[in-house]
Amino acid sequence: MNRLCLLLCTALLLMSACSPTSQPEADPGLLAEIQLIRAIDNHAHPVRVTGAGETTGSRI
Fold first, then answer.
1. How far is the C-alpha of 23 from the C-alpha of 35, rounded, in Å?
2. What are the CA-CA distances from residue 29 to residues 22, 35, 38 (Å)?
3. Are 52 and 39 in contact (CB under 8 A)?
4. CA distance 45 to 51
């Protein structure tokens, strides 16, 4: 009996976790503001080490 109860409780728990629910729609005003945010290039562009008289080959 205990094993059957455990099996039923486990099945109920698994079925309740898999129930289809939809996400609420996002606020259109918020989405419009997010689309206006520009991407930021935040990674390094290190300058190449050069010898005497040698150029870096960049426009920096």
1. 20
2. 20, 10, 17
3. no
4. 19
Can you tell me the distance from the alpha carbon of 19 to that of 24, in angstroms, rounded to the nearest whole number? 16
| 31-47 exposure pattern, b = at least 16 Cβ within 10 A, e = fewer | eeeeeeeeeeeeeeeee
**pTM greater than the 0.70 cutoff:** no
CA dist., res. 31 & res. 26, Å (int): 7
Question: Tens digit of pLDDT per residue, the chain (60 long)?
Answer: 789 999 999 988 888 777 677 778 899 999 999 999 987 777 777 777 888 888 776 655
* Residue found by looking up tokens 């190449």 in the block: 48
